[in-house]
Amino acid sequence: MYYDPEKDDHGLARNPFKSCVLPRPIGWISTLSASGVHNLAPFSQFQNLTFDPPYVMIASNQNILGNRKDTVINIETTGEFVYNMVTYDLREAMVKSAVEFPPEVDEFEETGLTKVPSIKVKPCRVGESPIQFECIYHSTLRLPGRGAQGSVDIIIGKVVLVHIKDEFILPNGKIDVVKLRPLARLGYFDYTTVDHIFEMKTPTKNEAELFGLEGASVVASRNTNR
Question: N or C: which terminus of the chain has fewer CB atoms within 10 Å of its end residue's CB?
Answer without folding.
Answer: N
